[in-house]
Amino acid sequence: MGRNLWIEGYRLTTAEITYRLPDHPGLLQTYVWQDLDLAPQFPVLSRFLTFWEKEIEGELHSVTVGTTELVTPAELKHANLSLSVH
For residue range 38-84, what is the model confidence (pLDDT) as tens digits? Predict the structure, then answer.
């Protein structure tokens, strides 16, 4: 990808996908997915979930999404203590 995706509004997106095991539908399994995506529509994640529903046997139970900006301001903290070592 030669484009500056962070300028276009992409964010690092992580999804915890919980699904039912095909052979044991009473058991749940999790899968962690991560990619750059556009919040709040999440087109990349939506395409992946569409693929999942068509091609993967495990029925989706739930999807939890977290996202953060790719470039954020640095956090500065001031020290409350100063020491000298001789």
Answer: 988 999 999 999 999 999 999 999 999 999 876 666 666 666 766 66
Strand order in the sheet with 28-38: 28-38, 10-20, 60-69
Q: Which residues of 5-33 are buried (b: 16+ CB within 10 A; e: fewer)?
A: eeeeebbebebebebbeeeeeeeeeeeeb
Q: Is 27 left (phi over 0), alpha (psi -120 to 50) or beta?
A: beta
pTM for the structure as a whole: 0.74
Residue 39 burial class via C-beta count within 10 angstroms: exposed 0-12, middle 13-18, buried 19 and up: middle
Q: Which of 58, 63, 56, 64 has the alpha carbon at shortest distance from 28? A: 58
Q: Which CATH class is domain 10-69?
A: alpha beta
Locate the domains of the chain by residue range.
10-69
